[in-house]
Amino acid sequence: MTAEMFELRKHGFRKLPISGPGHLEWFERNINGFDGDGYDPLRLNVYLTRDGGFTTIWFGLLDSAAAEHKLGVVADLSVNLSELYEEILFRGDIESPAFGATLLEAIRVDQKRACVLKMSGKFGLECHAIK
C-alpha cells in the first residue's frame, strides 16, 4: 500500500487550497463547529504536508513568518513564533491506512487545542481558543 491510500479526510483533515513545490499537498485538522474557509496564518492547529509517501505532521502555525508579519513583530528579535509554537509530531512515510490511523491516535492529534494568536496592547501576545 502507498501513502496515497491513507485518506486524510476520513481522519478529520481537510485539504488546504495551497500549492507547494512539486506535488506537495497541505492539510489542516478540522475544528469541530468551526467553519473556516481557506486558512488563517494566525491559527495554531495540527497541520500536515504530504509529498508522495513522505508526511510531516506538526502542531503550530502554518507559516510562522507570515504570522510574525501579520502580528507586526518581524523586527522584534525576541519573538520567534516557530520556536514558541511549533511542535513536530511526525516525519516519515505512512505506508498503510492502518499505520496512519494508529499514528494519529498515538500522537494524540485529537487532544491538540486550536487557537488564534492576537496582539493585545494590554497583554501582548495572546492565544484565543477556538470553541
Largest sheet: 7 strands, antiparallel
Residues in helix, %: 10-25%
Strand content: 25-35%
Low-pLDDT runs: none
Beginning-to-end CA distance, first to last residue = 37 Å
Gross morphology: globular
Structural class: alpha+beta
Mean pLDDT: 86
Strand tally: 7
The number of distinct helices, counting runs of at least 4 residues, comes to 3
From N to C, what is the helix and strand string?
Answer: EEEEHHEHEE
Radius of gyration: 15 Å
Structural topology:
Layout: E1 13-15, E2 25-29, E3 43-51, E4 54-60, H1 64-71, H2 81-85, E5 87-93, H3 97-106, E6 115-120, E7 124-129
Antiparallel strand pairs: 1-2, 2-3, 3-4, 3-6, 4-5, 6-7
Fill in the keyword field for this structure.
7 strands; seven-stranded antiparallel sheet; alpha+beta; 131 residues
Structural features, described:
It is a single chain. The radius of gyration is 15 Å and the shape is globular. The mean pLDDT is 86. The protein is built from 3 helices and 7 strands. The protein is of the alpha+beta class. It has helices spanning 64-71, 81-85, 97-106; strands spanning 13-15, 25-29, 43-51, 54-60, 87-93, 115-120, 124-129.
